[in-house]
Structures are given as C-alpha cells and as structure tokens.
Amino acid sequence: MSTQWILAIVVLLSVVIWFVQLLWIYSRARGDGQDPLRPVSGAAIFFVFAAPVAIALPNLVDRLADFWENIFQPEMMDRFRSSESGEYSVPRLIVAGKTIPLTQDRVQIGRFDNNDLMLDHPTVSAYHAEVILRPDGKYELMDRDSRNGTRINGTMVRAAVLKHGDQITLGALTIHYLVGSDGEASHEPPAQAHPPNQQ
C-alpha cells in the first residue's frame, strides 16, 4: 500500500472521529438542556481532540463559543433578512451565469486578479468599481475612475445605491444585482444615480 493511500485513510478516519465527537458533544449538551451549538462551536477547532478538550477544559470551550458568537451575531445577519417575508436572502451579483454572494462589506471589481471579483475583459478597467455596504444595510456601487465608465440601468453613474434587479454595466459587461429570490419582484424605485463629475 502506497504512502498516499495510508495518508488518505488516516485523514478520513480523523475526520470521522472528529465528526463523531462533535455529535457526542451536541447530544450531551442537549441532554443537559443547553444550547448544543455553543459547545460544538467552541470545541470544533480542536479537531480530533474536541471531546477531550470539551470535558477537561469547559471554560476554554465556552470562551471560544463566545468568540464565535460575537463574530456571527444575529444583528449582523439581520441585514440579510427580508422585511416582507422575514426570510434570509443574501444580496448577490450575477455575471456570466456565475453567482457571487455579497457577504463582505467591500467588494472590489476589475480586470486585475487581485480584485474580489475579477472580470477578464478589455473594456473593464484594472480597478473598475466597488460595491460597499453602507451603515443602513444597503449596498452602494462606486465607480473608481474607470476608463469606460459604470452604468446602472443604462445611466452613467459615479455612485448609486443598488436596488433589487438593477443592471450594472462595466465597460461592455453586464452584472445583475439581486436581493430576494430570482422571481421576487422589486417594490422599490430604480436606483438613484449620481451623475459622474464633469471634467
């Protein structure tokens, strides 16, 4: 048996052991009437030592659970909750059949590969535009002094708050901005565009 097969078996067994331990931690917490996700989230980082750490160092597991809870606070996820249906729906960009969820506060778009969304097209500038999460929870598109400009629904813009269904044009490429499900109609007016500075 080759070394690669042995390594693959060891890794697979380790993952199975880790998963079984997390299930045990989950069941134990439920049996004690606790929120089972707290000890699981706190112990999971210890991989195959998750159960021994959860038993020997419960305070450490609890502190790690607090850490993850602070990062993934419900208030942060509320920005993705629809005011009409109450369901979560992550805003996203659709380009060339590919879906890009907007889970970051800032998404840089351009031709160079160090952008968050790289568009390999000669009409797209190296650093063409960016989408920024505003304090009110809405996303705003900003042109970054691109060569061929940025349009929303056919109107040239420097900056505009995005609305569900907006069609963004960067050079010759089109991107769609969606918030709800694909079939959900927008009840909001079109994006308010700010005309580019006159030069």
Description:
By secondary structure, the protein is α+β, with helices and mostly antiparallel strands. It has helices spanning 3-31, 37-43, 50-56, 58-71, 74-77; strands at 92-95, 98-101, 106-110, 117-118, 129-133, 139-143, 150-152, 155-157, 159-161, 167-170, 173-178, 193-194. The chain has a 6-stranded antiparallel beta sheet with strand order 2-1-11-10-7-8, with no helix packed on it. Strand 5 (129-133) and strand 6 form a beta hairpin. The termini are far apart. Residues 182-199 have low confidence and may be disordered.
List keywords for this structure.
about 200 residues; alpha+beta; six-stranded antiparallel β-sheet; six-stranded mixed β-sheet; about 30% helix; about 25% strand; elongated; disordered C terminus
Strand order of the largest sheet: 2-1-11-10-7-8
Straight-line distance between termini: 71 Å
Secondary structural class: alpha+beta
Judging from the principal axes of the Cα atoms, what is the shape? elongated
Strand content: 15-25%
Rg computed from alpha carbons, rounded to a whole number of angstroms: 23 Å
List the total number of helices: 5
Could you give the order of the helices and strands?
HHHHHEEEEEEEEEEEE
Task: Give the strand tally.
Answer: 12
Helix percentage: 25-40%
Poorly predicted runs are: 182-199
